[in-house]
Design brief:
21% strand; three-stranded antiparallel beta sheet; 11 strands; 11 helices; alpha+beta
């Protein structure tokens, strides 16, 4: 695939240390009104990008459409990037067991817990990395359950040409209302499908506003009802959804976040530097939601991130 021109990202957040600007996070952000129209846009929101794990609600939707018997926590973790807590691994294991499969059916790489407390306990116990602990094991378990339900092969379920992955692609193109621009390999080994930032927001908005009783709403309702399975204690998605009931939040690697309010307003963010410390994307997304008229006061503290010096706050990261 030919290299596309560098995106014309714009300043979205600044880090101020002791009264002086130290650095700037560039990126793009798009906000849809409750009616689904673009009401807020900064940067290249119509240029293809990788949603990374922010696309998991669409992948979970495809698994449901294929017949995976997912409800409640099992559906939430299918759309989540969990922290590797014991209850996360147990839920992924139960999805596999219900499909007559063992954890060795997973094709995601072995990993250690991402959650701080779980990682500490893991190290102290002297354990080795496990596939069930990989943050995408819920998604992979759901994909395998879908394959079993449809009688599809399970050894090659990550192949882009596999019937399940074809369905994932068709599902994303339908809800995002645009063609996939490029297919890559995600960190977990599954196909990663490039769409625009506007398409990412539109896809979640369409699921949010779909009629009740359908698969689309079922995915988001499960995420809202069981936020601890989408991420985990102390992590962004779980924290936002716990403190803003009805909100759906899904973070993605390399600076991506998509959020949708209970009233339908939906925001997608891409921070161009990858936002490795996760200090910019959340405050940019919440600032955009606030601009769209959503009350974000329950998570007001997340509109600023402290900059430390000498062990104490000496500045902040804040939206521009």
């Amino acid at each position: 695939m030919p290299q596309s021109p560098l995106p014309e990202y714009v300043p979205l957040a600044e880090a101020v240390r002791s009264g002086m600007r130290e650095s700037v996070h560039y990126g793009a952000v798009v906000g849809l009104s409750a009616s689904g129209t673009i009401a807020y846009a900064r940067g290249p929101v119509h240029q293809a990008m990788f949603p990374r794990s922010s696309s998991k609600p669409f992948q979970a939707l495809a698994s449901l459409r294929a017949g995976a018997p997912l409800t409640g926590p099992s559906l939430a973790i299918a759309a989540g990037s969990h922290g590797g807590e014991d209850f996360h691994a147990d839920e992924a294991r139960s999805i596999l067991a219900a499909a007559g499969l063992a954890p060795d059916a997973l094709r995601c790489p072995p990993a250690v817990p991402g959650g701080g407390a779980a990682r500490t306990a893991f190290v102290r116990a002297g354990r080795e990395p496990e596939r069930l602990l990989m943050n995408c094991s819920g998604k992979h378990s759901a994909m395998l359950a879908a394959c079993v339900a449809r009688g599809w092969s399970t050894d090659d379920y990550l192949d882009p040409g596999h019937p399940l992955q074809v369905l994932v692609r068709e599902t994303m193109e339908e809800v995002c209302e645009e063609k996939v621009a490029h297919t890559a390999v995600d960190g977990c080994g599954a196909p990663q499908l490039a769409v625009t930032l506007a398409g990412l927001a539109r896809g979640l908005w369409r699921m949010r506003t779909a009629p009740g009783g359908g698969h689309e709403r079922a995915v988001l309702d499960a995420m809202s009802a069981h936020p601890e399975y989408v991420s985990g204690p102390g992590r962004v998605d779980t924290d936002l959804m716990t403190r803003m009931p009805g909100l759906v939040s899904k973070i993605g690697a390399d600076g991506v976040l998509v959020v949708s309010a209970a009233t339908g307003e939906t925001v997608a963010v891409k921070i161009s530097d990858g936002d490795a410390e996760e200090r910019a994307r959340t405050l940019v997304a919440l600032d955009a939601l606030r601009t769209l008229g959503v009350d974000v006061s329950p998570v007001q503290d997340r509109l600023r991130v402290n900059v430390h010096g000498g062990g104490a706050p000496v500045g902040e990261v804040r939206p521009l």
